[in-house]
Amino acid sequence: MRAPHDPTTLHVIAKEPVPGRVKTRLTPDYTPYEAARLAAAALRDTLETVLAAPARRRVLVLDGRPGPWLPPGVEVVPQCAGGLDERLAAAFAVCDGPALLLGMDTPQVTTGLLAPALAPGAWERCDAWFGPAEDGGFWALGLARPEPDLLRGVPMSTPRTGAVQRRRLTDAGLRVRDLPALRDVDTPADAAVAAAAAPGGHFAGVLAGLLRAPAR
Q: How many Å apart are CA 26 and CA 185, to the nearest integer?
């Protein structure tokens, strides 16, 4: 196993942005096709941030097939079967050194927000990085020595997911540092907040175009 001070691998876990399969809570304000466009833009923003950040590897853990939203320089591996906790655990299971995993729901993420967890001393006296989401989940999780069992069995997509996951880390004796809280894009109100936080991003551009479009 590599030492914790080795460069960190960045993972993004995502679904292929297919209408009807992603961002379903954006409907009926947006059609399934429009929701998928927003998902693709959010994923593209996230991957571009990952490419601009210092990392040993940059890996997209994908449910589906790559599309034109995938920039060069990102490895793609398929998600395993099972619940989200199992899929997150499997993403860490293939790592042999420090890893930081992100979701696709925070297009406002920047290299500056990720910097503390990717700095040369990020893993000194630190075993885990935790990025809480405002809805009670989490948008980032980093482990110095990936242990998949730290994620298995955590209830996902609930208001207490983040609290349970963070407690799982501390109960295991890990020293945890926190990243800033971010708002996941689940609802139209979330989309507006994320776009305002990153007005120059692909997500903000797609959202602005949809808001300017004639009423359906």
A: 9
